[in-house]
């Protein structure tokens, strides 16, 4: 496969996954801000949404205040933000057009149909209710594309590079959600791992579709260290860091076997996977959750750079 084709497939999958992630963050934030202050405290949830999206610096260069209007415009519809939902779908479609013959008809219909439907929203819905429906549509569009890829693609290098994009992006997103939750939303007087507001923790689990899974696995009330355990170490949870790296190692190994050689990307992915497998939640908290996640995000970015250098450059 040409490196250019692999690169387009890799980034097509990443941008579709990123659009869904942004929709989940905005939906969780909208739900939280609808609660009385007595339930959610005095933290600025809209500022935390921008921080979770990883574009706080760019946001505050363009806006003075993080509120519902500015954050939803910037993260959902801004053409000046390369990571807005609109920009993600635009770049995803451009990548899809570049590799049209590598996609199945169902995949092309999913991403092209999403882009055409997006045009109907113009600069955004006119009400909170309409915006909520828009966010659900974004998530459904991402699931439609992902499902069409899973159910129709030949299991060859095209599929494997696409899956690498999905799981690399998903690992980064889950790590950022956890980090911001503990260090932006956490009240200054509250110790990490201490009692926190139920509705905030519910929102973070909803944002990764893990609320039901949490109760199935732990069968008790929400506890910060168990939520972190679910989203970091539990490989049964498809958005956990452990699950993402299990899949990254699998697909990198498929590529290496197909191409007849391994490289730094395979070695680094296995190193991160082994560290996750050998970690325990009490040790992570003792070392510092923020430090652990910071190291993970750096390692995940490094893996992306190594995949690019090894296969996509």
Q: Rounded to an integer, what's the Rg over CA atoms?
A: 19 Å
Share of residues in helices: over 70%
Uncertain regions spanning at least 5 consecutive residues: 192-196
The outline comes out as: globular
By secondary-structure content and strand pairing, the structural class works out as mainly alpha
Roughly what fraction of the amino acids lie in strands?
under 5%
Mean pLDDT: 88
Q: Could you tell me how far the N terminus lies from the C terminus, measured between alpha carbons in angstroms?
A: 12 Å
Main pleated-sheet profile: none
- Count every beta strand, where a strand is a DSSP E run of 2 or more residues: 0
Number of domains: 2
- Number of helices, where a helix is a run of at least 4 consecutive DSSP H or I residues: 16
What is the string of helix and strand elements? HHHHHHHHHHHHHHHH
Keywords:
16 helices, 313 residues, globular, mainly alpha
Can you give a write-up of this model?
- The protein has 313 residues and is mainly alpha-helical.
- The protein is built from 16 helices and no strands.
- The protein has two domains: 153 residues, no CATH class; 160 residues, no CATH class.
- Helix content is 74%, strand content 0%.
- α13 runs antiparallel to α14.
List the helices and strands and how they pair.
Blueprint: H1 3-33, H2 37-40, H3 45-53, H4 56-62, H5 68-77, H6 85-98, H7 105-118, H8 128-152, H9 157-183, H10 198-206, H11 211-218, H12 224-232, H13 241-259, H14 264-277, H15 281-287, H16 289-312
Helix pairs in contact: 1-3, 1-5, 1-6, 1-8, 1-9, 1-10, 3-9, 6-7, 7-8, 9-13, 9-16, 13-14, 14-16
């Amino acid at each position: 496969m040409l490196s250019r084709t692999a690169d387009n497939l890799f980034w097509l999958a990443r941008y579709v996954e990123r659009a869904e992630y942004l929709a989940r963050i905005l939906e969780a934030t909208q739900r939280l801000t609808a609660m009385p202050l007595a339930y959610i405290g005095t933290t600025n949830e809209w500022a935390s949404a921008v921080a979770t999206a990883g574009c706080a610096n760019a946001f505050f260069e363009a806006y003075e205040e993080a509120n519902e209007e500015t954050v939803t415009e910037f993260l959902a519809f801004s053409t000046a933000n390369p990571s807005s939902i609109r920009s993600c779908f635009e770049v995803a479609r451009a990548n899809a057009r570049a590799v049209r013959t590598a996609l199945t008809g169902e995949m092309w219909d999913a991403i092209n149909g999403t882009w055409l439907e997006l045009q109907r929203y113009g600069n955004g819905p006119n009400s909170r209710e309409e915006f909520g429906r828009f966010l659900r549509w974004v998530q459904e569009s991402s699931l439609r594309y992902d499902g069409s890829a899973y159910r129709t693609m030949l299991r060859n290098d095209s599929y494997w590079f696409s899956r690498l994009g999905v799981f690399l992006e998903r690992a980064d997103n889950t790590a950022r959600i956890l980090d911001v939750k503990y260090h932006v939303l956490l009240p200054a007087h509250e110790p990490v791992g201490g009692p926190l507001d139920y509705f905030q923790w519910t929102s973070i689990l909803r944002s990764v579709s893990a609320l039901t899974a949490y109760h199935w696995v732990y069968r008790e009330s929400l506890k910060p260290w168990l939520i972190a355990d679910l989203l970091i170490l539990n490989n049964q949870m498809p958005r956990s860091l452990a699950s993402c790296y299990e899949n990254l190692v699998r697909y990198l190994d498929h590529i290496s076997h197909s191409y007849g050689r391994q490289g730094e990307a395979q070695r680094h992915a296995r190193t991160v996977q082994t560290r996750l497998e050998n970690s325990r939640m009490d040790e992570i908290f003792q070392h510092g959750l923020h430090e652990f996640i910071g190291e993970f995000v750096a390692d995940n970015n490094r893996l992306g750079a190594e995949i690019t250098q090894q296969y996509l450059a």
